[in-house]
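Late entry, written up from scratch paper. The run itself happened at the end of the previous shift, but nothing got recorded in the book at the time, so transcribing now.
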Amino acid sequence: MFGWGGYMSYLAIYCLAYTAWVEAAPIDIVDAIIWVIREWGLWLLLTPVLSTALRAHHQKPSLSWSAHAQFYGVGAMLAVALTLGSRVTLDVLEGAEAFTSFIYFLPRHLTAFAIVVLVWQVIYRPHPARQRKAAVAPQPAALCHSLLVFQGKRECLVKVESIDALSAAGNYVDIFCGQEQYLVRSSLKQLQQRLPADSFVQVHRSHLVNIGAIEQIVVQPAGNGTVVLRSDQQIPMSKGYRAQLKRLSMVQQSG
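Output as recorded:
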């Protein structure tokens, strides 16, 4: 509709300019508007109906080429018959010959139908590629209860609640469980998404700690500090993560 509105506004301005500069006659704004509406006003109303019909048609799965051809053929005949019939009728009422008007206006209205369909296909039609992309959008990782870890050449499972802290180490993450240390090939961010958010908190860009494993928090005057765990291990704490640690600790205490 916005396209038709812009096009009809352009025609009205063109009509006024032609009257003033070429014909050197007084301009009549109302007459220009009436002329534009008479020429294309019905298409302004018909375009939303066509768009709805096109959307409904293309939502049907696995249609054959013959079904598409039948739909567009019938649609073109109905749309052009309605708009062209109205325009020819107006011409006949003004004294014109019906057949002459039909031949004169037919190409215009067929072109209008083709443009409406083309614009809908390019701009408004749902593209299968976009739908597939939305359908396969990555889902959040499910929370885990255990992690498969390495200790030397040995593999084993550790329960999440037994983990005291996690520290980034390049392409790996160090897992600390009491006095034991394990290794996981992952990023710290990926592991954080799989751990309970109400139990594990980030205290540094490279460190996560289990709230239940915290024994003491030592804060320096500058705002950074150290988190002392139940295993006596000390984890550095950045000033930017201090508020998050305090907030989660208070939530657990109130619970």
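The helical segments are 2-22, 29-58, 65-93, 98-124, 128-135, 188-194, 239-254.
(Scratch paper discarded after transcription.)
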